[in-house]
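Customer escalation, tier 2.

The customer says the design service returned an amino acid string that "doesn't look like it belongs to this structure." They asked us to rerun it and document both sides in this ticket. The original structure tokens are below, unchanged.
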């Protein structure tokens, strides 16, 4: 046989070879076990099989070449180090085989403990345990060995060979029953020996083979099972929900067993270095004496608070506290850990940077700054806008009176209470009567859209974060809990059952779209403290509230760091003033169309129906003072700050009653013999103005060019309001924004007329009025160099730019098929939620560059909803815009993210 020299790809790493940066390759668990090993902490020796080995296995269905040999070599050196051999009948080395992917997927994949036990080595283990503990404890040692063996058969059977877990549990229950106890600790060695026999029979019955006695075969099968657990159904579902890529694979850790079930001086526990819910300092954990790791989580026996370990084993407790402090100092963050004590000796089995609530994220970041572990830049990096947004939603005021009856997925945040309805029609009906309703469905579909709009919240028993209900609710900013599968929905009977209770139409429920929890009855809602702080009603310097103080400190830092200004979208004085308190530095989008609604509709109708120029002018003249008053109020609220006013944008027929309603009115009036001249004229106008595709029809700048005097009236109202502000000692900084421009000629035409009016109104008042345009039609983005010649600023209307860039109308597509696109991964997130960097974002980038090249100093902003989306804010920072504008409630989120964008690009500025 010719010897072949091949250099094997490295698939196995000893714990001493890895470190915490290698999560991608070694998984989080493996990387952190290596890190702790290298810190000199007591970690049982072991090695990690890489995610690459898993990927290769999953792709080909077999272990990659070289893997078996590398495992053999690492096992041998482990055996040498421990002075024991795997499964040795006299003194067996036992190992655990543990999954661990790059991202933590709690409880999703498999772990097998005590690998290496068989009919012989169980005796050896007992002798060794007994010997070590002295003669007196040998009865306990037998018990321990047989308990470990039965656990191996149970875990191995269940996870490696798919034996139904209940069968083992029933056998365990039977054994306890026969003994007349509920506590597994009351089973003695003989009972457990009997249980092992029973387990082996179960194993044989389900697999058609004996429980494997070869230690190495146990090990190989367990490793393969961990690989395969990556594609277990629940793991696949979890990944989809959490948006974890499907192709990462899991690493496998082979770890020397240490035993928490060796008697009362042994045990196992979990702990956090701070409270992961509130962020409060201190040790939070649970401890269980005489148990193996999985017992803590499984809730087999009641754990005790970790603090009680101090009484049980002070030396180990002190050592543990020391290690936790060391870990925090090393990771500079909240850590969570798993540990085991084997006869008074402490072993660390896992650590990772712990998950935490949004509130804890802020509080902990603040504390770590105080403790000198991180600086404020890092604190800013550690929190995010999604967490801040969560802290701004009103919350349920929960006392013990309210227990959740079900828990689904928090699909769209918020707290909503309301009357249960089961159909869209009923939701619309009750909402029209002013009731708050919660629409409950098994799952929603496009037919439910009206009901979803009418409802205060949506509750479904099926579907995840990308289900129809979830996607549409998030798009609407509506509270939604999806996939609450304990709920049995019966739509025809208009009821659902949960936890043995029946809820019928008309009953009240409360849903928490952040936690996914569902409550019966009306849970009182309380305003968020963080909003009270932003509103100015909580003074962070003078209250004892760790959260508010941390938010204040981090926000202040973000404001100091950010280059992007943050403005708001506001159409009224009230919105403007709230946004200003939230930190808005101007208005980026003031829509003027609402100024045509309500009792002003009549004037608009007159404008539309005007036959002669005189009629039209009269209608416009009547609208002028009304608009002027609106602008005066807004300028007053935004005194000293820029206000971008968009000239009227929607098609005019939106201001007329719907066709069907007019047709009915005319018919009814005719029947009664009434005068129908006006109704008929309106009806004719609606028919005449009907558009197949209004989104692409007569709107925006096109209206201004077609309806004489319309834009002129608005420009005059803006200029006059600004001048009147100045006369009253204020400073108005109006920026007139022309919507839907696609060609520079459109803008030039509007501009020429506007400039004349402005010059005439402004005179020597000192008021300066800028004229610019929205960039929301793809052609505008692509000819931005030309358009910039006639524009002092651009504001990207990314909603329309997304609609026209993708060629889909938002109202139609979100409910119709976005869920499918998300499911297929065509996009990971709706392009209306977060800017599509590659496509729509590219248009923004081109327009920004070419616009600035043509006119240095061109002011650039964005006023689509993306202005308040964390990821999009980072993109707009990168592209070099001057400001983002978003709804008032999003202003703090944008401020925070604009600061984070600077910190994350190393403080550099791309311009
Ligand atoms: P999970 O990722 O579900 O927490 P783990 O791989 O961490 O799964 O293991 C499950 C339990 O078994 C944990 O409580 C862990 O501490 C314990 N465990 C794992 N390996 C060992 C070992 N070598 N010795 C003792 N206990 C172990
Ligand atoms: Mg674990
Ligand atoms: Mg638009």
């Amino acid at each position: 046989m010719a010897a072949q020299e091949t250099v094997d790809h490295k698939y196995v790493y000893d714990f001493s070879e890895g470190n915490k940066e290698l999560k991608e390759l070694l998984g989080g668990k493996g990387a952190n076990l290596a890190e702790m090993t290298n810190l000199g902490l007591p970690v049982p020796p072991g090695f990690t099989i890489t995610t690459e080995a898993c990927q290769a296995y999953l792709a080909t269905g077999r272990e990659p070449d070289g893997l078996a040999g590398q495992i053999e070599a690492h096992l041998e050196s482990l055996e040498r180090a421990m002075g024991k051999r795997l499964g040795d009948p006299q003194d067996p080395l036992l190992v655990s085989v543990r999954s661990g992917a790059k991202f933590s997927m709690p409880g999703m994949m498999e772990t097998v403990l005590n690998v290496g036990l068989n009919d012989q080595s169980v005796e050896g283990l007992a002798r060794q345990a007994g010997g070590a503990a002295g003669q007196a404890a040998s009865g306990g040692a037998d018990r321990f060995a047989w308990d470990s063996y039965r656990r191996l058969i149970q875990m191995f059977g269940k996870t490696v060979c798919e034996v139904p877990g209940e069968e083992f549990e029933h056998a365990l229950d039977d054994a306890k029953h026969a003994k007349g106890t509920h506590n597994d600790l009351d089973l003695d060695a003989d009972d457990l020996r009997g249980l092992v026999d029973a387990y082996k029979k179960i194993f044989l019955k389900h697999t058609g083979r004996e429980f494997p006695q070869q230690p190495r075969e146990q090990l190989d099968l367990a490793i393969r099972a961990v690989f395969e657990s990556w594609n277990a159904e629940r793991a696949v579902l979890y990944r989809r929900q959490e948006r974890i890529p499907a192709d990462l694979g899991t690493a496998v850790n082979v770890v020397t067993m240490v035993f928490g079930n060796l008697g009362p001086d042994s045990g196992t526990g979990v702990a956090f270095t701070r409270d992961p819910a509130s962020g409060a300092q201190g040790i939070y954990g649970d401890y269980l004496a005489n148990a193996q790791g999985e017992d803590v989580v499984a809730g087999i026996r009641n754990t005790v608070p970790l603090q009680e370990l101090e009484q049980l084993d002070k030396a180990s407790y002190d050592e543990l506290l020391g290690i936790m402090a060391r870990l925090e100092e090393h990771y500079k963050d909240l850590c969570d850990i798993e540990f085991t004590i084997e006869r008074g000796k402490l072993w660390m089995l896992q650590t990772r940077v712990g998950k935490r609530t949004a509130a804890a994220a802020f509080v902990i970041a603040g504390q770590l700054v105080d403790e000198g572990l991180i600086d404020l830049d890092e604190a800013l990096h550690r929190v995010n806008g999604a967490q801040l947004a969560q802290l701004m939603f009103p919350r349920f005021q929960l006392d013990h009176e309210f227990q959740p009856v079900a828990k689904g997925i928090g699909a769209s945040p918020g707290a909503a209470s309301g009357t249960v309805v089961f159909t869209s029609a009923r939701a619309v009906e009750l909402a029209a009567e002013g009731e708050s309703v919660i629409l409950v469905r098994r799952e929603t579909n496009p037919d439910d859209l009206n009901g979803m709009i009418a409802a205060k919240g949506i509750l479904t028993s099926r579907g995840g974060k990308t289900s129809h209900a979830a996607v549409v609710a998030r798009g609407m900013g509506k509270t939604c809990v999806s996939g609450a599968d304990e709920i049995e929905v019966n739509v025809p009977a208009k009821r659902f059952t949960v936890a043995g209770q029946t809820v019928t139409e008309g009953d009240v429920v409360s849903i928490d779209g952040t936690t996914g929890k569902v409550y019966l009855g009306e849970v009182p809602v309380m305003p968020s403290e963080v909003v009270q702080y932003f509103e100015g009603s909580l003074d962070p310097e003078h209250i004892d509230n760790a959260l508010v103080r941390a938010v204040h400190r981090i926000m202040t830092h973000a404001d100091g760091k950010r280059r992007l200004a943050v403005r708001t979208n506001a159409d009224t004085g009230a919105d403007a003033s709230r946004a200003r308190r939230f930190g808005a530095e101007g208005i980026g989008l003031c829509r003027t169309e609402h100024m045509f609604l309500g009792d002003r509709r009549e004037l608009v109708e007159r404008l539309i129906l005007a036959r002669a120029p005189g009629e039209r002018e009269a209608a416009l003249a009547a609208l002028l003072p009304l608009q002027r008053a609106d602008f005066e109020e807004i300028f007053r609220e935004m005194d000293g700050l820029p206000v971008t006013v968009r000239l009227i944008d929607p098609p005019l027929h939106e201001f007329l009653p719907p066709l069907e309603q007019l047709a009915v009115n005319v018919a009814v009036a005719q029947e009664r013999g009434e005068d129908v001249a006006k109704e008929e004229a309106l009806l004719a106008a609606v028919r005449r103005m009907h558009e197949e595709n209004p989104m692409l029809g007569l709107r925006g700048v096109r209206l201004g060019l077609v309806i004489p005097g319309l834009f002129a009236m608005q420009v005059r109202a803006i200029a006059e309001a600004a001048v009147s502000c100045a006369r009253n000692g204020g400073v108005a900084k109006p920026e007139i924004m022309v919507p839907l421009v696609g060609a520079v000629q459109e803008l030039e035409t509007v501009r020429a007329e506007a400039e004349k009016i402005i010059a005439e109104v402004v005179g020597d008042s000192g008021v300066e009025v800028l004229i610019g345009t929205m960039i929301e039609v793809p052609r505008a983005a692509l000819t931005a160099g030309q358009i910039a010649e006639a524009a002092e600023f651009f504001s990207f209307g990314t909603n329309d730019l997304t609609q026209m860039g993708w060629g889909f109308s938002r109202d139609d597509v979100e409910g119709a098929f976005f869920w499918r696109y998300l499911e297929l991964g065509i996009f990971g997130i709706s392009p209306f939620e977060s800017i599509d960097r590659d496509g729509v974002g590219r248009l923004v980038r081109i327009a920004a560059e070419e616009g600035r090249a043509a006119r240095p100093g061109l002011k650039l902003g964005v006023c689509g909803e993306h202005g308040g989306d964390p990821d999009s804010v980072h993109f707009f920072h990168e592209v070099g815009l001057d400001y983002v504008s978003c709804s008032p409630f999003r202003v703090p989120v944008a401020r925070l993210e604009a600061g984070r964008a600077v910190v994350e690009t190393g403080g550099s500025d791309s311009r």
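Tier 2 assessment: The sequence is consistent with the input. The chain has a mean pLDDT of 92. The CA atoms of residues 707 and 839 lie 34 Å apart. Sent an explanation to the customer and offered a walkthrough call.
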